[in-house]
Amino acid sequence: MSANQIALLYLVASVLFILSLKGLSHPLSARRGNLFGMIGMGIAVATTLSMTHRVDIALGAMVVGGVSGVAVARRVQMTHMPELVAAMHSLVGLAAVLIAAAILNDPRAFGLDDPLPIGNRVELVIGAFVGAITFSGSVIAFGKLAGLGTYGRVFSSAPVTFAGQHVANLLLATVMVGAGMAFVAAPSDGAWPPFLIMIGVALLLGVLIIIPIGGADMPVVISMLNSYSGWAAAGIGFSLNNSMLIIAGSLVGSSGAILSYIMCRAMNRSFFSVILGGFGTSDGAIAGSAAQKAVRSGSADDVAFLLGNAESVIIVPGYGLAVGRAQHAVNEMAEKLRAKGISVRYAIHPVAGRMPGHMNVLLAEAEVPYDQVVEMDDINNDFSSTDVAFVLGANDVVNPLASQPGSPIYGMPILEAHKARTVVVNKRSMAAGYAGIDNPLFYMDRTMMVFGDAKKVVEDIVKALD
Amino acid sequence: MTGLVDPIVVNITIFVLAIFVGYHVVWNVTPALHTPLMSVTNAISSVVMVGALLAAGSATEGYGTLLGGLAVALVAINTFGGFTVTHRMLEMFKTKDRAKTRAPRTGPGA
Known about the structure:
Chain A is an alpha/beta fold.
């Protein structure tokens, strides 16, 4: 194939990638979108294979990775999606570093001049260090999400901070950029030492950037690393003069950046305060002060009575629901209520799960029809005309303190469950949420607390509804 | 003003335009599908495999073959795994028949 034919086929693949993301605007067109993505990838890979001299080696390596990828993807539990995604980000990062090293090793294999021109070197440096930061940062994020804190403090879900952290990061970043510049200026036979120093420092920097970020901020971290993995791919595209890589990388980069922004907005946190870290530490002082207030608690039978006599119910699921594996039981309960002619909907806060859209997937897995699941902005006005708001495993996202100046979560958009005529809250205990603050919702006269394991409680309600 | 445009300028042009496309396309993604969005972008970013394939399949065998082969194997996990897991999730978002028949009841409560 001529270079022009190859470039045109890459263009077709790029367009298919764009269409693949466009498909996700609605659940009905999404599967077709995913198919477009697969076709685009197929075209990209087949076109490239036709240019290689050793198809056997290239294809063999692809089969090894592909088989393990499919095996993992078919088995992974939906609650573990954040870990899987973090692991995948790390692979893109590592691959970017390896490709950069391969370009440096033999530029002619990529159709580039040997020695590598200055322009390509600059691009190589950017792709390589973004890739290295993505790799080590994602490994730490994976560890935090998978609860590997017992294997090393760097994986602890609590923020790891030390004195002079920001200065150390700044220093390392300076060394990294310095080594990168030395690499660009180095003679072709002396390019490896500065390159390797730069990669080493970038790997360390990736670790240090992620460790101070606490568990509550993981949705932002995953989105951010998603974005980085895209920029790393784009960087490699620049150094290979490959427009398809640049386009695909930029799509992914901007997608991750938008998701980071949405997650930050949902927590009313600035991007920089998340990056600088330290959030997610529970400060027991505020939580302790109100712990003695009286709450009205009820049994599963009481809740079944309330729900059975309602005309409209909004369920507010939180991650606690998924941890307790109660989604299926909740769907069963909702179906029972619907059979009685009661309107049941689910209200989703953007940070209800551990990554963007996580709660929607967990509910979809439990066969909750997606048209019953409503986003925060679309349902908040309906709470005041709703008979029962049933809060399951959520806490901070329904905390009315968010509207009080001076509260640690002031300004955070919440689901206004407290406006419903009756509020039912299921919790394991009176413990505070991630933000470590008390929740006045629990002490309202119109609130009934049901303590216990979410799955057990909901199953009891289902029985009582019969 | 004569002469060819430097490839880097062409690349920057493509880069900036692609960011604009990405920005507009991604804001249109429904929040319910943000997790599949992330897994499919994972699969798409694995298109760096193109670079790794060139190294793995290069005419001269050496360190480049090793680096490229390793990169192909690693990133193929994303390519195949990413699309597979996205497909799995999107299958869950299918409208079920019973959901269709009950859709009219999902309006706001009285």
